[in-house]
Design a protein that fits this description.
By secondary structure, this protein is of the alpha/beta class. Helix content is 19%, strand content 30%. The chain has a six-stranded mixed β-sheet with strand order 7-4-6-5-9-8. A six-stranded mixed β-sheet has the order 16-13-17-21-20-18, sandwiched between helices. A five-stranded mixed beta barrel has the order 22-25-24-26-28. A hairpin with a 4-residue loop joins strand 20 and strand 21. Helix 5 crosses helix 6. The radius of gyration is 30 Å and the shape is elongated. The two termini are 37 Å apart. Bound molecules: adenosine monophosphate (AMP) and magnesium ion. The site of magnesium ion (MG) has 6 residues, from loops.
């Protein structure tokens, strides 16, 4: 049996990189960049007008000119049109190139237009106002997004702007989710009175999807020979195997033995925690990693979010620092185990996360996950936890 810290350390020591692949931009969000995104031009690429109005030469305004003859109208996307004298202007639109003969933009709100002239009403025109100068944000050849960055919508915006229709991203591990248990039938089946439908595997599939990882799925009966044979195939075909069930002390919990017979080295079995104590973790000689979670749905859920997500992030080069939340009520937990308390999260008026316990009915009560957003990680060495104390929180739901 290991502590939560030891389990985490062992798991993070086995973080891995699985090479790179090229994906269409559309498929990139949530993945990790495996190349630098570089500015193909300055950003912005030209002196960009930021208000609809007129472009003038400031020198004319400084000398007292207030009425400017409108020489032409220039739309965004049009060639720049120059003025010939300080008493001329170009009617100009947001997004247009500033004509080189002008240097200042006065918005429509500050001018009157009549008979082909624009008269400036405002007295406080400032030279170079309402211009987003070329190269102000980034310079050509500058690294805009470094390799290793998680691809967010903002990264997609930058990639599109510099002409990247596809990106090199880190490959995900080839992943399979395996459920075990003779009592479990599939979604579409009608369970007998002594059966239940399996749900952990679908929950894991959905949770993986949130992290941009897809997975195959397999169900195994509680049969040592079948488990051994199918797992033998899986450790060859996959980088990561997420199992649920069959790792406890039950007579039909065949998974740990089967794995060890297949040269999957046990790195730990059992963690001093509740829920999820029977968690088993190991590595095959070929590098395949096996996360074998206990089958109780809340246990599977906790182990996935506390350990697998940390592993995935570490493998992606992201340090997983959980946010902290303030306990909203006194709480007692007496077992010598690290308790992961299910909590509902809110944001208090000072912007701090507030954790309200919603305990539920043990690790089989997966309906309680609907009422909660996170697991609050309470320190093992204590039994009493006071309202107002702050602890790490492993979020799986929505906070806002
Ligand atoms: P086990 O860890 O195999 O002893 O299973 C513990 C409990 O979790 C049992 O009540 C199982 O029926 C339940 N369980 C195991 N796997 C799943 C699953 N994939 N979906 C829903 N419940 C499960
Ligand atoms: Mg079972």
């Amino acid at each position: 049996m290991v502590s939560v810290e030891e389990a985490e350390r062992i798991i993070l020591e086995h973080s891995k990189v699985y090479g790179a692949e090229t994906l269409a931009l559309d498929d990139c969000p949530g993945r990790v960049l495996a190349e630098n995104i570089i500015a193909d031009r300055d950003l912005p690429p030209f002196d960009r007008v930021t208000m609809d109005g007129i472009a003038i030469r400031y020198e004319g305004f400084r000398r007292g000119i207030r009425q400017f003859r409108i020489k032409a109208t220039q739309a965004a996307g049009g060639q720049p049109i120059d003025i010939a004298g300080d008493d001329e202007c170009i009617e100009i639109m947001t997004g247009a190139v500033l004509p080189p003969s002008t240097d200042t933009v006065v918005p429509y709100e500050e001018i009157d237009m009549a008979q082909g002239n624009a008269t400036v009403k405002a007295g406080d025109v400032v030279a170079r106002q309402n211009i987003h100068p070329r190269g102000k944000d980034k310079k050509q050849h500058e690294v805009l997004v470094p390799s290793g960055t998680l691809i967010s919508p903002a990264v997609i915006a930058v990639a599109s702007a510099v002409g990247k229709a596809s990106l090199s991203v880190r490959k995900n591990p080839r992943t399979i989710i395996i459920s075990t248990g003779d009592e479990l039938v599939d979604i579409a089946d009608v369970p007998a009175t002594f059966q239940v439908r399996r749900s952990n595997n679908y929950a894991l599939l959905a949770a993986l999807k949130q992290y941009g990882v897809s997975a195959d799925m397999l169900h195994l009966p509680d049969d040592a020979a079948i488990i051994g044979a199918r797992l033998a195939d899986c450790v060859r075909a996959y980088d990561v195997i997420l199992l649920s069930g069959g790792v406890s002390m039950g007579k039909f919990d065949y998974v740990p033995d089967a794995l060890e017979k297949l040269q999957v080295k046990k790195l730990f079995h059992k963690v001093r925690q509740r829920p999820g104590k029977p968690f088993w973790f190991g590595e095959h000689t070929n590098g395949a990693l096996v996360f074998a979670f206990p089958g109780n749905p809340v246990s599977t859920f906790l182990c996935f979010h506390r350990y697998f997500v940390s592993w995935l992030k570490a493998s992606r080069g992201i340090t997983n620092r959980p946010p902290h939340a303030k306990l909203n009520t006194d709480f007692t937990f007496r077992a010598p185990l690290q308790y992961f308390l299910q909590v509902k999260l809110d944001i208090d008026p000072l912007g701090q996360l507030l954790a309200t316990p919603v305990e539920g009915h043990g690790s089989g009560d997966f309906a309680n996950l609907l009422a909660t957003d996170a697991f609050l990680e309470l320190p093992m060495e204590r039994e009493e936890f006071k309202k107002g104390e702050v602890f790490p929180v492993w979020v799986f739901g929505r906070v806002m």
